[in-house]
C-alpha cells in the first residue's frame, strides 16, 4: 500500500498528492536522488529544493574529502610535504 505523500528527506516538508495525479507532475521542481544499494536495490530520496539536497548531502559526505583536499594542498608545494 503506497502512501500518497512525498517527504523531503532534509527538512521534512510533506507533499501530498491525490491518487491519480502523476508523481512527475506533483514533484515538479523537487529533486530525487537514487542510491544503488546492491543488486536490484535502489533507494530514493526526495528533496524540495537544492538547498535541502545540499544540506542532506553535506551531512552524508564522509570526512574523507576534507582530509583529502588538505593533503592535496600540502602536497601542492606550500609546505615541503614530500621533500
Ligand atoms: Zn526540504
Mean pLDDT: 82
Total beta-strand segments: 4
Q: Taking strands numbered 1, 2, ... along the chain, how are they ordered across the largest sheet?
A: 1-2
Range of helix content: 25-40%
Describe the SSE topology:
Layout: E1 5-7, E2 14-16, H1 23-26, E3 31-38, E4 41-47, H2 50-60, H3 64-78
This protein binds zinc ion (ZN).
Zinc ion binds at residues 8, 10-11, 13, 47-49, 52.
Q: What does the model show?
A:
- With 83 residues, this protein is of the alpha+beta class.
- The chain has one domain (5-77).
- 36% of the residues lie in helices and 25% in strands.
- The chain contains three helices and four strands; from the N terminus they run ββαββαα.
- It has helices at 23-26, 50-60, 64-78, and strands spanning 5-7, 14-16, 31-38, 41-47.
- The strands form two sheets. The protein has a two-stranded antiparallel ribbon.
- Strand 3 (31-38) and strand 4 (41-47) form a beta hairpin.
- The chain is elongated and about 55 Å long.
- It starts with a strand and ends in a 5-residue tail after the last helix.
- The structure holds zinc ion.
- The site of zinc ion has 8 residues, from loops.
Amino acid at each position: 500500500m503506497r502512501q500518497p505523500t512525498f517527504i523531503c528527506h532534509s527538512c521534512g516538508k510533506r507533499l501530498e498528492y491525490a491518487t491519480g495525479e502523476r508523481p512527475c507532475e506533483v514533484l515538479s521542481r523537487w529533486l530525487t536522488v537514487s542510491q544503488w544499494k546492491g543488486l536490484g536495490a535502489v533507494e530514493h530520496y526526495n528533496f524540495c529544493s537544492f538547498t535541502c539536497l545540499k544540506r542532506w548531502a553535506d551531512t552524508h559526505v564522509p570526512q574523507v574529502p576534507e582530509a583529502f583536499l588538505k593533503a592535496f594542498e600540502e602536497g601542492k608545494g606550500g609546505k615541503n610535504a614530500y621533500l
